[in-house]
Amino acid sequence: MNASPDSATPSPEGEPAGRPVRDSYSEYVEITLPNDANPLGTLFGGKLMQWVDLAASIAASRHARSAVVTASIDSLTFLRPVHIGQLVTLRSAVNRVFRTSMEVGVKVFVEDLRTGMVQHVSSAYLTFVAISGEGRRVIPPPVLPETADELRRFEQAGQRRAYRLANRAAR
Fold it and tell me: Helix, strand, or coil here: 171?
């Protein structure tokens, strides 16, 4: 693809050379089982990290239409515990595509199935790279934000990337 990954350059057929955010949207749900929990009966942080990575990889794969690998994950803060028997819902979507990488946002919620109460548990931003069957990087199509919220996340993803790159250069 010769188009800039951050622009919606029309293809020869007149269609945008990109995909809307909604095409990458994913909702992944798990129930917290005893094997997922520590001796206090709350979800292992590592298990939640695994689910976050899986939810993000689904969104990245949907967008790139290829295999993807996790390149990095920003911080992951646990806002509240998740108990055995509670439902965990992870919502993910591609926020922005750069030259060969994609930022995916994941928002995690817990639902108490007895009361119906839903609470925010965590949020994370992950960077993925699309890979071909031969193991080469694939240039994913640009993401096309359509709503004000998607545009905000698109802009913020650019700011986070600039911060990441500045920190990498400072090492």
Answer: coil
Within 8 A by CB and 6+ apart from 164, the residues are 72, 74, 127
**How many structural domains are present in the chain?**
1
Pairing of strands 87-97, 67-73: unpaired
In this prediction the pTM is 0.87
Domain membership flag for residue 2? no
Burial classification of residue 44, based on how many CB atoms lie within 10 Å of its CB (0-12 exposed, 13-18 middle, 19 or more buried): middle
Domain span including residue 153: 19-170
pLDDT tens-digit readout, 126-152: 999 999 989 999 999 999 999 999 999
DSSP codes of every residue in 38-78: -TTSBB-HHHHHHHHHHHHHHHHHHHHTSEEEEEEE-----
With tokens 């509670």, the residue in question is 86
d(CA 48, CA 42): 11
Q: Is the pLDDT of residue 169 over 90?
A: no
Examine residue 48 and state whether it is found in any structural domain, yes or no.
Answer: yes
Closest CA to 123 of 55, 44, 24, 34: 55
- Residue 5 lies inside a defined structural domain of this protein: no
Please, what sign has the CA dihedral across residues 145, 26, 63, 130?
A: positive
